[in-house]
């Protein structure tokens, strides 16, 4: 049974439709990604799941609870990351942990949590003096302090440097490993590809695709690109005719073949038959970035 169920969700601000009929399920124990460009409706959807906004239409259930009607019960099982402005700059890490622990009936040990998140030495540090990465880790700690079954993390790594981002990714993986379900809102494709079991690609308030990152990548027209410098002259037409090949082009002295796994095998077999070696052979796979561009672009054309 899914732990989060969203059915036919609509949310309008005035005459602007922010969420335009969205349905998805999050399974217990997974990291589910809500992915999309700015203004796609990600935060509004996450806020409806967290009970911070009331849907105009549709239903949301978290472990069977209605986030608005069952608000109090919901806070016991769902942790949402705070926005920056919600913490006093002078509050220390320890004070923030104690304050937020007091909101929940069965909080976890805040000191142990801080140590697990690499904040053990910063307990006496005021919020304003923490680095960007430490602030994000504190927000994660505050989302986890009530021992939730689900956490909602919205653009958690925005503004972090690459190292801080990678550390935060490791933390999110640890959260999942401890059995907590994660709803992760992000516009970073690399982050989603690395972390998410399944992702929903949002565009203009709608879900344009939903699946595992691998499924979405496999759906892109150009899944694999093989390129090489042929040791002897080779007719590009012979490559174009191979199974799975979508396009062949020249890039200086290299031949670039766009296709899929099947076309890579066919290209290598052809070269072997012709006695031509593929010098400086490179095979690159499409990423979620390519899939995202493909999915959102094709929708715009229709
Ligand atoms: N409080 C609000 N009042 C009016 N419009 C809003 C409000 N919040 C969001 N919007 C609009 O709704 C759309 C979706 O916003 P949002 O859910 O924040 O998207 P995302 O998180 O994907 O960037 C955007 O066009 C945004 O401008
Ligand atoms: Mg947002």
From TrEMBL:
<dbReference type="InterPro" id="IPR027417">
    <property type="entry name" value="P-loop_NTPase"/>
</dbReference>
<dbReference type="GO" id="GO:0055085">
    <property type="term" value="P:transmembrane transport"/>
</dbReference>
<dbReference type="InterPro" id="IPR003593">
    <property type="entry name" value="AAA+_ATPase"/>
</dbReference>
<dbReference type="GO" id="GO:0016887">
    <property type="term" value="F:ATP hydrolysis activity"/>
</dbReference>
<dbReference type="InterPro" id="IPR017871">
    <property type="entry name" value="ABC_transporter-like_CS"/>
</dbReference>
<keyword id="KW-1003">Cell membrane</keyword>
<keyword id="KW-0067">ATP-binding</keyword>
<dbReference type="GO" id="GO:0005886">
    <property type="term" value="C:plasma membrane"/>
</dbReference>
<dbReference type="InterPro" id="IPR003439">
    <property type="entry name" value="ABC_transporter-like_ATP-bd"/>
</dbReference>
<keyword id="KW-0378">Hydrolase</keyword>
<dbReference type="Pfam" id="PF00005">
    <property type="entry name" value="ABC_tran"/>
</dbReference>
<keyword id="KW-0046">Antibiotic resistance</keyword>
<keyword id="KW-0472">Membrane</keyword>
<feature type="domain" description="ABC transporter">
    <location>
        <begin position="4"/>
        <end position="229"/>
    </location>
</feature>
<dbReference type="GO" id="GO:0005524">
    <property type="term" value="F:ATP binding"/>
</dbReference>
<dbReference type="InterPro" id="IPR050763">
    <property type="entry name" value="ABC_transporter_ATP-binding"/>
</dbReference>
<keyword id="KW-0547">Nucleotide-binding</keyword>
<keyword id="KW-1278">Translocase</keyword>
<dbReference type="GO" id="GO:0046677">
    <property type="term" value="P:response to antibiotic"/>
</dbReference>
<protein>
    <submittedName>
        <fullName>ABC transporter ATP-binding protein</fullName>
        <ecNumber>3.6.3.-</ecNumber>
    </submittedName>
</protein>
<keyword id="KW-0813">Transport</keyword>
